[in-house]
Design goal:
Chain lengths: 482, 490
C-alpha cells in the first residue's frame, strides 16, 4: 500500500528582546550562570509577572507577517507540570485564546509552491536550563544536575502549523522559510544550533486517498535544517515499514539521534499530558486594539517571499535570490548596493559566494564584518570600468571583509589595479609581437587561438595587471592593421 | 498619659508630633506589651527587635528634623508572615519555608517603611493563609485575647490578636475569603479588605491570586483609612494593580448615614447565623435606620453557591501557586533517589494536612474532564454573584451582614471537621469573589466574645463603606479592651 505522510511542525522562537518576558532581567545568553535572574524569573515566593510590551509587539509582528488574525483579546494561561528547571512549576503560556490565529506560509519545493496553514502563534516564557551530569546527559540516572535560570523567562513564541506538510523536503522548506521570515523581522537570530529556534514535528501516515489521520509521533532534537529533513525522512520510512508489515504506530515522543541517524522512543516514563491549564490570575487579558495592530503592521519590512520574487524578476537566479531574501541583513546590503548603482548580478554573486563562505569560515554574521553597501557599489564600479579583473575583485572583497579598507584602498595596497590604458600597454604589446613572429603570422592567417597565447605573454610581462580584454583588442588591431 | 500601647494611630500620631511621646518610647511600650502577652497568645512568629529599634530611632530623628512621612510615621505595625521581608524570616507558618529569608521586600512593606512605620515583626497565620482559626500553623496556634481557650479566627489571627492586645498599633493582614474580616470580628478589632487591585500583591506569597488582597487591621475605622492610604495605589510590579486615581477614603468618616441606602443581605443574616450574632446585627441595623439611613432587606440568591464556588476556585489557584515549593531552590528539601521522589517527599513533609487537602482539591478541579464541571462552573457562579451585587447596588449604597456566623469558637472544636470550619467564611466570601471592598467593625460582646458587623460596597466604594463603618463604630461605642490587653496579667 502506498502512504501519504502528514506532518505538522511546532516551532519555538526565542525573541531577542533586551529584557525577559515577565521581568526586567537582561536577556544575555553569554552571561555567567544564574546572573541574569531576579525574584520573578526565579519563581521566588511573592513575585509576580508583568508582561514585556516589546515582546507582545514582536509576536504581533510575526503574526501579521504570517497573515494571521490578531485577537483583540487574548489570555495567558498557566501550564502546570513539575520540572526542576521550571521555577514556578508552571509555565505562563497561552491556551484557548492565543494572540495570533489562522495564518499561512508559502513553501516552494522543486518549483511547486503550496500554502502551509498556520494554526496559531502564541506567547510564552522559556524555562531554565538543566545540565545533567553523568549517564548520557539525561535526568534519569544522572549523578547530579546543575540549573541555570538565565534563560528562565526569556520570551518564547510558538508557531504551530496545520498538518499540511507532505514530505521531509517540504518540512525543511517550511522551516527554512519560517527562519528567513523571523530573521527578516529582526525579532530573533533564529539559530537552530544555539536553540533560539527549535522544531518539534508531528508525523503520521495514512493510505493515499484516505482523509482520516493516522496515529502520530512527535519527533524532537533536530539541531539543524538538514537534521530536521533527515529525522523526518527516517521517521516516515520507519512508520511506513511498521504499517506495511501490519503493525501499528505507538503515539509517543521520539528523540532524533544525529550520530546513528535514527529516531528513538524517549526513555523514562511518558509525561502525562494533563497540564491543567487555567487562566493566569496574575495577568489581565491582553488587549491589542486596531490602532496598535496597524501601527505594528506599518513597521513590517518587505517580507522574504516578496523580496525573493522581486529579486528573481530583476534577473537573479532562484538559489541566490532565496539566500538574499531569507537573510534580512544580507538582503539589505544587496538592496542598498544596487540602489546606489552596483550591478545586481555581480553583487548577488559576491554576497552568496565569497561573503557567505567568509562568514561560514569565521562563524560570524554579516553584521559583524566591516563590509558596507557602499563598498559593494564601489567594487562593482571598479569591475565595470575594468580597473579590476573578476579574480582581483574577489581578492579585493576578501581584503575589505578583513577590515583593510575600501575597495580602492585594498586594490591599491595590494597592487591589483588593471592597466587598461592603451598607450601604457602599447610598448609591452609591441615587445611581445616582436618576440613572437610565428604567432603573429598565425594570426594573420586567421588562427585566432594564437591571440590568446600572445595575451598570456603580455599578462606575464605586466605581472597580471593588464586588462586581458584591452590587450587582446590591441594585439588584433596591431597585427591586422600592421 | 495611658500606656502608649493602648493608643490609636491617630492619638499616637498626635502625641508624637506634640512631643509628648517618641517613636522609640512607643515601640518600647508595644514590645513590653508583647512580652506580657505573647506567652498566652503566640501572635508573633518573629519579632525583629533590632530592626524595629533602629526604625523607631530613625523615625524620631526624621520628625525632629521636621521630615514628616505621614500618618504612620513612628507607628509600630505588624506584618502577617505571608508578606516577604528582606532578610527577615518569612515562613507562611509552613515547615516548607522554615528559615527562609527573602532577598526583597513586598511592595506593601516598602510603602510601610517609606511611610515611616516601624515594623515590629511577623505574625502567625494558618499555613499559607488556609484556614479560619490560625490553628493550621506549623509553629503552633494563636489564641484569642478575649478568651485563650478560643481561637482568634483566621487566617490573619496573629495580626488580629497583636492589634487587639496592643503588641502593635496596626497590622497588615491578607484576605482571600475573609481572612482579615473574620478574625477582626472574633477579636473585636476593625479589619478591612480593599477593592481587588487597590493594594499591590507583589511580595504577598500567593494563596489564590484572583482573590487575595492585603488590608489593614486596626482598632478604629479612622486608623484603617490611614493605613490603607499609605498602602494603596498603582504598583508597576503587579499587573493586576489599579491604575486610576484614588478616592479620598476618609472623606465621609464624619458624614453619618442620613439618606444613605443600606441593604441587608437576607442570605447572610438568617439561617446558619447564631442567634446572639443576628440579634446584635439587627440592633445595629435598627440604630442605622433611626439615624436616618434607609435600611431595606435584599435577596442575593447566588450567595447560596458562593462558598462552594470559593472552595473550587481558591484551591485550584493554590494548587498552581504552591507548586513552586518543591525543594529545588529554597526552603525545606527531603533528599531522595530521584528528583520526582525528592519533590514528593519534600512536599509531603513540608505541607500540613489542610494545605495538602486544598492542593489535592484544586488539582482535581482543574484536571482534564473535570475542569468544566468544577472550575468552569465555579467561575460562572462568580459571574452570578457579580450580577447580584450589581442589582443590589442599583438600589442601595452598601450591603451589610454579620461578619462571622458565630463568635470565637473553642480551640480544636472544628479542626476535625473541615466543612464546619469552611462555614466560618460564609458571610465574607462573596466580596472576595466579586473583588469588592468590605470591612468588619466590632459592635458588641456575647458572653465576653466580640461580634462583628460587615459593610460591603461596590468596587472602589471604599469611601461610602468607611462612612457607614464609622457611623456603626460610633453607635456601637465599642470601647471594651481584650482582657489580655489590660494590666490584669503581668
Amino acid at each position: 500500500m502506498s502512504y501519504e505522510s502528514v506532518i505538522g511542525i511546532e516551532t519555538h522562537v526565542e525573541l531577542a528582546t533586551a529584557s525577559k518576558m515577565f521581568c526586567g532581567c537582561k536577556v544575555d545568553f553569554g552571561a555567567e550562570p544564574n546572573t541574569t535572574v531576579c525574584p520573578v524569573c526565579l519563581g521566588l515566593p511573592g513575585a509576580m509577572p508583568v508582561p514585556n510590551e516589546r515582546a507582545i509587539e514582536w509576536i504581533v509582528k510575526i503574526g501579521l507577517a504570517l497573515g494571521c488574525d490578531i485577537a483583540p483579546h487574548s489570555l495567558f494561561h498557566r501550564k502546570n507540570y513539575f520540572y526542576p528547571d521550571l521555577p514556578k512549576n508552571y509555565q505562563i503560556s497561552q491556551y484557548d485564546l492565543p494572540i495570533c490565529v489562522n495564518g499561512t506560509l508559502d513553501v516552494t519545493v522543486d518549483g511547486e509552491t503550496r500554502a502551509i496553514g498556520i494554526t496559531r502563534v502564541h506567547m510564552e516564557e522559556d524555562t531554565g536550563k538543566s545540565l545533567h551530569v553523568g549517564e548520557g546527559g539525561r535526568i534519569h540516572g544522572a549523578d547530579h544536575s546543575l540549573l541555570d535560570f538565565n534563560r528562565s523567562g526569556v520570551p518564547l513564541v510558538e508557531v504551530v502549523s496545520e498538518p499540511d506538510i507532505r514530505s521531509a523536503a517540504e518540512a525543511r522548506a517550511y522551516a527554512t522559510e519560517l527562519q528567513g521570515l523571523i530573521r527578516s523581522l529582526g525579532v530573533s537570530d533564529a539559530k537552530l544550533e544555539e536553540g533560539s529556534m527549535r522544531f518539534d514535528a508531528n508525523v503520521s501516515l495514512r493510505p493515499e486517498g484516505v482523509e482520516e489521520l493516522g496515529i502520530r509521533t512527535e519527533t524532537k532534537n533536530m539541531n539543524s535544517l538538514r537534521s530536521l529533513e533527515q529525522a523526518l525522512a527516517y521517521e516516515i520510512d520507519r512508520q511506513g515499514e511498521v504499517l506495511g508489515s501490519g503493525g501499528s504506530i505507538t503515539q509517543e515522543t521520539r528523540h532524533w539521534n544525529e550520530q546513528d541517524g535514527m529516531t528513538h522512543a524517549m526513555r523514562g516514563k511518558e509525561e502525562s499530558s494533563d497540564y491543567r491549564y487555567f487562566p493566569e490570575p496574575d495577568l489581565v487579558p491582553l488587549a491589542v486594539d486596531d490602532a496598535w495592530r496597524e501601527q505594528v503592521r506599518s513597521t513590517l519590512p518587505e517580507l522574504p517571499q516578496a523580496r525573493r520574487i522581486r529579486l528573481m524578476e530583476s534577473g537573479i537566479e532562484e538559489g541566490a535570490a532565496r539566500q538574499l531574501a531569507a537573510d534580512a541583513a544580507m538582503g539589505e546590503l544587496f538592496t542598498d548596493a544596487v540602489a546606489a548603482g552596483g550591478e545586481a548580478r555581480d553583487v548577488a554573486n559576491w554576497l552568496t559566494g565569497e561573503v557567505v563562505a567568509h562568514l561560514k569560515r569565521d562563524d560570524i554574521a554579516v553584521t559583524e564584518i566591516p563590509l558596507t553597501s557602499d563598498h559593494l557599489r564601489e567594487l562593482s564600479e571598479m569591475t565595470a570600468k575594468g580597473d579590476l579583473s573578476a579574480t582581483a575583485a574577489k581578492e579585493v572583497l576578501g581584503g575589505v571583509m578583513m577590515g583593510e579598507g575600501s575597495p580602492s584602498q585594498v586594490a591599491a595596497a595590494r597592487d591589483l589595479i588593471q592597466v587598461t590604458d592603451v598607450a601604457a600597454l602599447g610598448s609591452e604589446v609591441d615587445a611581445v609581437l616582436a618576440a613572437n613572429g610565428d604567432a603573429v603570422e598565425k594570426i594573420r592567417q586567421g588562427e585566432t587561438k594564437a591571440v590568446g597565447f600572445l595575451v598570456g605573454q603580455v599578462m606575464k610581462a605586466t605581472g597580471g595587471k593588464a586588462d586581458p580584454k584591452v590587450v587582446g583588442d590591441l594585439i588584433v588591431s596591431k597585427v591586422k592593421g600592421g | 498619659m495611658n500606656d502608649p500601647a493602648d493608643l490609636t494611630i491617630g492619638a499616637a500620631g498626635a502625641a508624637l508630633r506634640g512631643g509628648e511621646l517618641t517613636a522609640s518610647e512607643l515601640l518600647e511600650a508595644v514590645l513590653k506589651r508583647a512580652s506580657m502577652t505573647e506567652a498566652h497568645l503566640h501572635s508573633y512568629l518573629t519579632i525583629d527587635r533590632e530592626g524595629a529599634v533602629e526604625a523607631a530611632a530613625a523615625a524620631d530623628s526624621a520628625l525632629r528634623k521636621g521630615d514628616d512621612l505621614g500618618p504612620l510615621h513612628g507607628i509600630p505595625i505588624a506584618l502577617k508572615d505571608n508578606m516577604v521581608t528582606r532578610g527577615i524570616e518569612t515562613t507562611c507558618s509552613s515547615k516548607i519555608l522554615a528559615g527562609y529569608k527573602p532577598p526583597y521586600d513586598a511592595t506593601v512593606v516598602e510603602r510601610m517603611r517609606q511611610g515611616g512605620a516601624v515594623v515590629v515583626g511577623k505574625t502567625n497565620l494558618d499555613e499559607f493563609a488556609m484556614g479560619s482559626s490560625t490553628e493550621n500553623s506549623a509553629y503552633g496556634p494563636t489564641r484569642n485575647p478575649w478568651n485563650t481557650d478560643r481561637v482568634p479566627g483566621g487566617s490573619s489571627g496573629g495580626s488580629t490578636a497583636a492589634v487587639a492586645v496592643g503588641s502593635a498599633l496596626a497590622a497588615l493582614g491578607s484576605d482571600t475569603g475573609g481572612s482579615i474580616r473574620q478574625p477582626a470580628s472574633l477579636c473585636g478589632v476593625v479589619g478591612m479588605k480593599p477593592t481587588y487591585g487597590l493594594v499591590s500583591r507583589y511580595g504577598l506569597i500567593a494563596f489564590a491570586s484572583s482573590l487575595d488582597q492585603i488590608g489593614p487591621m486596626t482598632r478604629t475605622v479612622s486608623d484603617a483609612v490611614d493605613v490603607l492610604g499609605v498602602m494603596a495605589g498603582h504598583d508597576p510590579k503587579d499587573a493586576t494593580s489599579y491604575r486610576g486615581d484614588l478616592p479620598d477614603f476618609g472623606s465621609g468618616l464624619d458624614g453619618g448615614v442620613e439618606g444613605l441606602r443600606i441593604g441587608v443581605a437576607s442570605e447572610l443574616s438568617g439561617e446558619g447565623i447564631d442567634t446572639p450574632v443576628v440579634d446584635a446585627f439587627r440592633r445595629t441595623c435598627d440604630a442605622l435606620a433611626e439615624a436616618g439611613a434607609k435600611v431595606t432587606e435584599l435577596s442575593l440568591p447566588s450567595f447560596e453557591a458562593a462558598l462552594s464556588a470559593y472552595y473550587l476556585i481558591a484551591p485550584a489557584e493554590c494548587s498552581a501557586n504552591l507548586a513552586r515549593f518543591d525543594g529545588v531552590r529554597y526552603g525545606l528539601r527531603k533528599e531522595a533517589e530521584t528528583v520526582e521522589d525528592m519533590m514528593a517527599a519534600t512536599r509531603a513533609e513540608g505541607f500540613g494536612p489542610e494545605v495538602i487537602r486544598r492542593i489535592l482539591l484544586g488539582t482535581y478541579a482543574l484536571s482534564a474532564g473535570y475542569y468544566d464541571a468544577f472550575y468552569g462552573q465555579a467561575q460562572k457562579v462568580r459571574t452570578l454573584i457579580l450580577e447580584d451585587f450589581a442589582r443590589a447596588y442599583s438600589e442601595v449604597d452598601v450591603v451589610v451582614s454579620p461578619t462571622s456566623p458565630t463568635t470565637a469558637f473553642e480551640v480544636g472544636a472544628r479542626t476535625d471537621d473541615p466543612l464546619s470550619m469552611y462555614l466560618s467564611d460564609l458571610c465574607t466570601i462573596p466580596s472576595n469573589l466579586a473583588g469588592h471592598p468590605a470591612v468588619s467593625v466590632p459592635i458588641g460582646l456575647d458572653e465576653g466574645l466580640p461580634i462583628g458587623f460587615q459593610v460591603m460596597a461596590p468596587a472602589l466604594g471604599e469611601q461610602v463603606m468607611f462612612q457607614v463603618a464609622a457611623a456603626v463604630e460610633r453607635m456601637a461605642a465599642f470601647d471594651a479592651r481584650a482582657p489580655l490587653a489590660t494590666s490584669e496579667i503581668s
